[in-house]
Every structure is written in C-alpha cells, then in structure tokens.
Amino acid sequence: MSATERATPKTRLSKSTIATYAIGSIGTGGFSTLPGLVLVYYLTDTLKVPALAAGILVTAAKVWDVIIDPVIGGRSDLDLVRHGTRRRFMVLGAVLLPVFFILTFAVPIGLSPVAAGGWVLVAFVLAATAFSLFQVPYIALPAELTDDYDERTRLLTWRVVVLTFAILLFGAGGPMLRTLGGGSTFTGYLVMAVIAGLIIGLGLYVSSSVARKGKIPSNLKQSASVWEAYKEGFAALKRSQAFRALLGTFLLQGLATGLMLAGAQYVAKWVLVDEDAVSYLFIALIAPALIAAPLWGVIANRIGKERAFVLASIIFGLAALSMIGLLWTAGAWVYGPVAIAGAAYAGMQSLPMAMLPDVISDDAAKHKDGQAGTFGGMWTAGETTGMALGATVLTIVLAISGYQASSASEKVTQTAGAIDGIIYSFSIVPAVIILLSLLTLARYRLRKGTIAK
C-alpha cells in the first residue's frame, strides 16, 4: 500500500508495509540513542568542555531542531502535493545524516575546548537538520497509511519493537565500537561514528521506500511559506486539545528518558565504577522491552491505548524512583529496576505514537483539511525539546554538584556530592517528571468511539 493511500477500516496493512516502515526506526532509534548517550560525555571527558557548557552546546543544537521542524513539516505537505510523495525529503535526510554524524565525532586532536565545542555544535546542528528531513515526514505517514484505529496500533507496535532493538544495538553496541577504536579517545569515537552512521543511514534509506507515489489526500492543506508553516503548526496546537495533551505528555516523558539516557554513562563510570557497565544497562533495559512491546499492543486492545499508556508511565516512574537506592549501595541489583523500566518504556513509546494518527485524523475530519506533515513537525519539535532538555538538566545537576570535566588522557576524582548528583539525575528527578506527565495525560480525551470520521 502506498504511503498516501488511506485504507478502509476493514483493510489490514500488508506485512511488507509494516516491516518497511518499522526499519526506519533502526536509523531514528540509533540517532536518538547514541548522541544522547555519549555526546555530553564526549564533550566533558574527552574534549574537556565544562559540563554546563556541554549542556548549552547540545541544547543549542536541539533548539535549532525545534525551530526547523515545523518548517520541514509544512514543506513536506507541500512536496506531497507537488510530487505525490514525501519520499524526497526522507531520502535527502538518509543520505546527509551519516556524513554530519561522522563529522560530529571527528574533532581534530589538539583543538582547544572552545574550538572543539564549536566544531561539535556546527556538525551536530547539520546532523540534526538531516535527521528532521527524514523524521518529520516519517512521523506523518501512519495517518496516511491507514484510517483504522487498531491497525495504527499494530503498525506502531512493530515500529517500536524495531526501535527497542535499535536502542539495544546502539546503546550497548556503540560503546563497544568505541572500545574497538581505543575507548574514550578521539580514534575510538571516530570508529564508532563511522560504523554507526552508515547503519543509521541505511535504515533510513530502506524505510523511505514506504513513501511511494500514490493518491494524495483530497483534504490536504499545505503551507506556502516559512511563516505560514509556523502559523499552521501553532494553529493545530491551539485548536486540538487532544494534541496539546498528548504532545505535552510525550515532551515531559522525553525529558525524563533523555535525562536518564544522558546519565547512564556517568552512572556506569562513577557509581558502578565500570565504564563498560553502560552496555549492560542497555541490555537490561531493552531485552524486556523487546518482549513487552507486542504485549502493550495486546493490552491496548483490551483496555484502550490511553489507559495502557497511563499504566506504562506509572510502572516506569516507580522503577526510576527505586534507583535512589544507589545512594546507599551500588551493585548488580540496579539491573532489576532498569529491566522493569525497559518493559514500561516500550509502552511509553508505542502507545503515544499510535495515538498521534488518531489525533491527526480527528482534526482532519473536524476541520476538513489534512495536515499530517504539520502535526509531524510539531510532534518532532516537542520530542526533540524533551530530549534536549534532558541533557540540559543533567549538565545543570552535574555543574551544581561539582562535577569535574577532563580530557581523554586525564584522571580525575569526583567528589561524593558529584556522584550523588549523578544518582539523583537517574532516579528521583525523572520520577518526578513522569508524575507531572500523568497530569497532562489525564487531559487527553479521545477514545476509540469518539474519534471523528
């Protein structure tokens, strides 16, 4: 089935469509996971960029991403009208992303921390832009692939199965690749970036074929200018209460998971006193998630996507909170709550993504114009904001607690306060953020029988 044909409620998506769409999450999961895991650590512990400055650099790159996402969303809708497909943007992103991703971790040896930070900023901004060229139309496609409520759950469930595999592949494999090149050194990061970048680009390119030319939705509305793209994006956010509630929830949860993702490397090195333990943390996180992702689809069919999403969020928050025990004793016990969090994380990813196409279709039916690209752009901007702020919050906590940056060849000793700060950022802080996300989720009122047709 083409990317722009809408299925009738009784039409099941083909296995090839589901598989091809899901493959894109190898790339999106890789790019979301690996920089989130190692970029701040690369800046502070290899390039000797102070923690707060590292956070500012990563956040600045993500702010640009937030600015450009709504524009790409509007342009994607326009491209669909002109060429009958969203694929051109997706292919461009797939080709450019590996190049700029590699450059991000190709800082020449000998640069000062200021120059090295500037290099990373420029390269990562370009990489983030390339990622958005793929991600925004990719997010828009499910609303156009099928109109069926349950088929969207099926489509997005298998996407998240692949996404969780990608998180395992890059979260555990990335640091291992870095070790092949000499650990946390310039060469180690470059080896990691080359191999990971090529895998990311290949996944994105293969998945772009799901956006073949096809029937253009008759009610599609497209933005003609940059200003209009922003205007339409905020108009969609203003008129759709369901979209505001869902996006707000996803943003907050992205903040919580982004904080824990960025903190995992620090927990491994300074709390568990084993830098390689970051790979074990990711195995503990993702192995249960691979099993749980299809189960969340079953649960959603039984009790509804919204209630299942609440359940997954509560489980994740409690698992995160339990890791405050690292303050008193660090050890292998931590892999238990991490595994529980991983099972819940699968639901926190698949369920809101399956709810988003419902929001888009409901809005299109009520307002007689389809803006899947615009919604996709705003969604990606919100997701990016959450993940970026997660890294920012981590660096603020590190700075306040007295964390000391270092170069690849330096050996430093962190204070007890700095190590406590790492633990807080991995436990109680994300747990509180998850609690706040439940308040926004309570305002989501769309149900299977209330979605406008």
| Secondary-structure element series | HHHHHHHHHHHHHH
Number of strands: 0
Name of the CATH first level: Mainly Alpha
CATH topology: Growth Hormone, Chain: A
Point out poorly predicted stretches: 1-10
The total tally of domains equals 1
Report the end-to-end length measured between terminal Cα atoms. Answer: 21 Å
Arithmetic mean of pLDDT: 83
Which structural class fits the helix and strand makeup? mainly alpha
The number of helical segments is 14
Backbone shape: globular
Helix proportion range: over 70%
Descriptive account of the structure:
The protein is mostly helical. The protein has a single domain, classed as Up-down Bundle (Growth Hormone, Chain: A). 77% of the residues lie in helices and 0% in strands. It has helices at 15-45, 51-83, 87-104, 113-145, 149-180, 186-207, 226-239, 241-271, 277-303, 305-322, 335-367, 372-401, 416-426, 428-441.
Sequence-ordered SSE layout with sheet pairings:
Blueprint: H1 15-45, H2 51-83, H3 87-104, H4 113-145, H5 149-180, H6 186-207, H7 226-239, H8 241-271, H9 277-303, H10 305-322, H11 335-367, H12 372-401, H13 416-426, H14 428-441
What features would you highlight for this structure?
single chain; mainly alpha; 453 residues; 77% helix; Growth Hormone, Chain: A; disordered N terminus; 0% strand; 14 helices
